[in-house]
């Protein structure tokens, strides 16, 4: 892995997984003393300007992280030079991102400690439990990602 200064986390709508990943990533970067630009976006434009899903906000808050101020954005608002690493939540996001970014910058979140599994979209989950599982997956994967970044930076 090359030196990483800026990371973009991407899911479909930028209201569930990627804002949660952004919040976790910012929190862990601060705790680890890592100076990183961290942002999130969605591959669709369905939720531009909207706050994260209330269940993502609640799960983050229960873990001491505030993501309530984040607003949904679409990935094509960014250019290829803005980020060193683009992290897709699932394989469909990964394929969609290859339209905007060079392949050497795009990775799958599940490749970091999750044996390549997709981070499932919890949007249609009925309760908070699914969001808690997503939080746990993201927390583990982002820690593993940061371990690799620390070795290269």
Automatic annotation (TrEMBL):
Look up the coiled coil feature and give its residue ranges.
none
Q: Does the keyword Hydrolase apply?
A: yes
Gene3D superfamilies associated with the record: 3.40.50.2300
Query: Listed GO molecular functions?
Result: protein tyrosine phosphatase activity
| Enzyme type, top EC level | hydrolase
- All copies of the Phosphotyrosine protein phosphatase I domain together span 5-148
The family this protein is said to belong to: Belongs to the low molecular weight phosphotyrosine protein phosphatase family.
Q: Could you identify this protein by its name?
A: protein-tyrosine-phosphatase
Q: Which organism is it from?
A: Helicobacter apodemus
